[in-house]
Amino acid sequence: MKVIVIGAGIGGTSAAIALQRLGHDVVVYDQMRENKPVGAALSLWSNGVKVLNWLGLADEVAALGGRMDDMAYYDGHTGEELCRFSLEPVTAQTGQRAYPVARAELQALLMDRVGSENIRLSMRLVGIEDDGQRVTATFADGSTDTADLLIGADGARSFTREYLTGVLGLDPIERTYSGYTNFNGLVPADPAVGPLDQWTTYVADGKRCAVMPVAGDRFYFFLDVPQPAGVPYDRAEGIAPLREAFGGWAPGVRALLDSIDPEASFNRVEIWDIDPFDTWVHGRVALLGDSAHNTAPDIGQGACSALEDSFALGIVFATNTLGVADALKRYEKIRAERAGELVRRARKRAFETHAFDPAATQAWYDELRTEDGSGVIRGIVGNIVDSPVNLGGGILT
């Protein structure tokens, strides 16, 4: 079977590997000219790591991951420790350590495993035709390719999603602004910011400043600033908006700001998501990853959810024999409800943490002062427990 995958991100490449391992001929197309993903790094919780293990990448992913043993919250203004606890119970309950990883390095690993001969860059999808037997993709340069199915892993502004909603006569699916801008990047790990093996987060005024360890003695940093969409920004400003938002914060935050080199690693991303929807498949065309469930990063499950898609896709094609359309509908049934629930959970979390309801955010800050870790760990494991990769036995308590 020949498969066209649109999108060489985490979802598209992991899906390609899953189908290649079943013996299928897979070609990946992406409009990017080189591996320059949006966002510096990502959180791989156990559900995402387990998919990568299943794809045969366990050792490589472990080498990319930072060692994140503990988690702590601090008052953003004073630096006072609100709570600190071990993340070992998450590992023990789920059967797999979590790994923060540099996104470009993980994407490069996945692209390398797909094989450069199977990836076509600088190819923008402009048309899809499904005649019931084969699917033809048309690209902006006028070229075409035909396959037995097409997987649209083409991101939040997905052309494949537009095709599906159009052919089904559905209203276009619009993105929803999450209410804040995220600044992120990579810096040398510095104990002045936080312990080198800890997920460190400073919170105050609905804003957040956090670092996670990644391989290579680096911190992945991310800072959230609640603000309207469309606030003007020029890259020449560098980190000026962060100085304005966080300049009077605790010494650890100021140390982080001093370490950021905007020329080396710095991203500014307005956070948007899409309302959950159930129709991911029509005929021989299916959505995967952000095209199906663009999710705010507030629970760290965006990339993990895309990896779950790839796992489910591989399983249905390995175990069902009634044809492409049937297998894709089974994939949709496995994934749509769970992925939509994670979108809703991330929205709820963003509402709580970013002072969209100031009383709710203050109540959360107050709870952190008495948190022994059990509540946070329960939430992290709760996002993982229903993952299809667990096959019903992945959580031990």
Key features of this structure:
single chain, 397 residues, alpha/beta, FAD/NAD(P)-binding domain, seven-stranded mixed sheet, six-stranded mixed sheet, 26% strand, FAD-dep_Monooxygenase_BioMet, FAD-bd, purine metabolism, FAD binding, urate oxidase activity
Structural account:
The chain is α/β, with parallel strands linked by helices. The protein has a single domain (2-175, 273-390), classed as FAD/NAD(P)-binding domain. Helices cover 37% and strands 26% of the residues. The protein has 13 helices and 18 strands. The chain has helices at 10-20, 46-54, 58-64, 88-94, 103-114, 159-167, 240-246, 251-259, 290-293, 302-319, 324-353, 358-368, 374-384; strands spanning 2-6, 25-29, 41-44, 70-75, 81-86, 99-102, 119-120, 125-130, 135-139, 144-147, 149-152, 175-188, 198-204, 207-214, 218-226, 267-274, 281-282, 285-287. The protein has a 7-stranded mixed sheet with strand order 5-4-13-14-15-12-16, with helices on both faces. α1 runs parallel beside α5 (103-114) and α4 runs parallel beside α13 (374-384). The longest helix is centred in the C-terminal third of the chain and has 30 residues, at 324-353. The radius of gyration is 21 Å and the shape is globular. 46% of the residues are buried. The mean pLDDT is 96.
